[in-house]
Structure formats: structure tokens, C-alpha cells
Amino acid sequence: MSGKLQGKTALITGGGSGIGEAIAKRFVAEGAKVVITGRRAAQLETVAAALPSGTCVPFAGDVGVIEDAQGMVEAAIALGGGKLDILVNNAAIDPAGSVVDVPVEQWLRVINTNLNGPFYTMRAAIPNMIANGGGSIVNIASLAALRCIPAMPAYSAAKSGLIGLSNAAALDYGPQGIRVNVVAPGATRTVMLENQMKALAETLDTDVTGALAYMTKFNPLRRPALPDEITGAVVFFASDDSAIITGTVLPVDAGACVVDPNGAAVSSGGINWGGAK
Q1: What is the Cα–Cα distance from 88 to 106, expressed in whole angstroms?
Q2: pLDDT digits (tens, 9 = 90+) for 199-232
Q3: Measured between alpha carbons, how far is 91 from 38 in angstroms, rounded to an integer?
Q4: Scanning 81, 91, 193, 224, which has the fewest C-beta atoms within 10 Å of its C-beta?
């Protein structure tokens, strides 16, 4: 690795699995020390134990609880000797349910984890970043913030709100040297997505790999991302390579956001748009 984050300290929420775990490993490889958070202590400890001693500290807690979020930030500041350079808000949940069907309690839980949680950590981290001359905040949204997923209004609303929150913070705190950017992954082969694909796999009489291939068959790259393939964009925004970039949303989605679903449906029948074979 190139050491793009050498000497930096980062807080990564949802760092015990999936994209968050991949970001933690990449950050350490790039020279950073990290605090990883999540609700499952054993999982966090397993990730930390696999990394070089002293580079990764686990903090078990719920980002949707303001006291826990504050504790996470304080742990990262302590690891950095009084300075937090990078905040990555990755923790999220994604239960389904349309507007009429989703239980109100579930709606509130999604909003609390996916939107309130980043607000809590940013609220706690920004004063330290200001005091130390700036920092980088990278919020992990989703393609669902830009394009809707059926029967997931809470997730889409929270991730769309996260983009709005990020833009507002980029505007307000840019003069203090704080950059706020968003990475919006598309379908990424995490355990969370694999669990979602089980019902589709059963319907198609295939396995999870087959279901993922079916789901992404109209993407220009024709496959889901791997968690490691999301990390480069996060490192870019966290590092000085993006020193003049703030308030930006970067889809990392195998090109999914450029697809017209109507045209894709026609093309799937062997006909090019306009009728020419």
C-alpha cells in the first residue's frame, strides 16, 4: 500500500463486518490507526485481533444511542492522542417493508441507526476536528439514496437524508477545514446482502451467487461489488488526494445508476432500443 493515511486516526462505525471491516483493514494497510464500532463485541474483537497490534481498537456500542456515539468518538480521539482525523459513518440496517406495511417501530429504528447515528458521531467529532485544523468525514450512503429499492422506504429515506446531512455539514464546516463526502455503494456482496438474496434464490431455484447474478445482470459490469472494491473510494476521500473535494456523492455501483430499466428490459428480450436487432 502507498501509506496515504500514514499517521492518521479514524473512527469507522459498523466496522465488524462487510464494507466496514474491509475499510478498517484497508485503512490500517494505508498507515492509519482505527477504532471500529458495532453492537457485537466478539465480532469486533475478531477483526481487531487479525490486524497488527495497536492499530485497531474495538468499541462495542449502538451508534443510534447518543451516549454510545459520543463514547466511540472519545475512544478514537484518545487513540489519536487527542486528535481524530477521519470519521467513516458506515453502520446501517436495512429491514424491508413498504410505507403501509413497515411497522412504525422498525421505521424509527432504521432512521435512528442510518441517519441519527451519523448525526450523533458528526456532532461529537466536528469540534475536535475544528480544534485540530480540520478532518475528513466519509459517509457511506447507498445507491438506494439515489434510486429507490422496492419496499424499502425507511432505508432509502435515511440514506437520502444522509446525503442531505453530508452536504449541509460540508457547507457549514468547510471554512474550518472539514471535508464531508459520500460514497454510495450499489449491490455489494456482504453477508447482509447475501441474506437478502436467499428468498430470490429460492424463487429462481438457484443459489445466492445465481441470485446476485440475476439482480445485477443489467449493470454495465454485470456483477456485484466485493467489499474490498468499495474501500478505494473511501481512502480517496479520507486522504489528501481529495484535499479540494467536499460535498460530493460518488456512486460505486458497477455502473447501475446509468441504466434505464425500460431499455434494459427491452434489451433482455434480445432487442436493442429502437427495434434494431
Answers
A1: 24
A2: 889 999 999 999 999 999 999 999 999 999 999 9
A3: 7
A4: 81
Cell of 102: 413497515
pTM: predicted TM-score of the whole model, two decimal places: 0.94
Q: How far apart are CA 252 and CA 90, in angstroms?
A: 14
Q: How is residue 226 annotated by DSSP?
A: P
pLDDT at res. 200: 87
What is the crossing angle of helices 191-204 and 208-215, to 10°? Answer: 90
Q: Grid coordinates standing for 124?
A: 461529537
Kindly tell me if the per-residue pLDDT of 277 is higher than 70: no
- Residue 173 falls in the annotated catalytic set: no
Task: Report the alpha-carbon distance of residue 87 to residue 75 in Å, rounded.
Answer: 12
Specify whether the CB–CB gap between 270 and 232 falls below 8 A.
no
Assigned CATH for 9-187+227-257: 3.40.50.720
Among 118, 245, 119, which residue's Cα sits nearest to residue 170? 245
250: which 3 cell numbers? Answer: 460518488
Burial class (CB in 10 A: 0-12, 13-18, 19+), 52: exposed
Angle in degrees, 0-180, between the axes of helices 104-111 and 153-173, rounded to the nearest 10: 30
Reported as a single tens digit per residue, the pLDDT across 241-272 is 999 999 999 999 999 999 988 777 777 766 66
Q: Cell 435512528, residue? A: 112
Q: Specify whether the CB–CB gap between 217 and 200 falls below 8 A.
A: no
In this prediction, residues 28-40 reach a mean pLDDT of 97
What sections of 87-190 are H helices per DSSP? 104-111, 117-131, 153-173
Given the residues 120, 155, 173, 214, select the one marked as catalytic.
155
3-state secondary structure of 37: strand
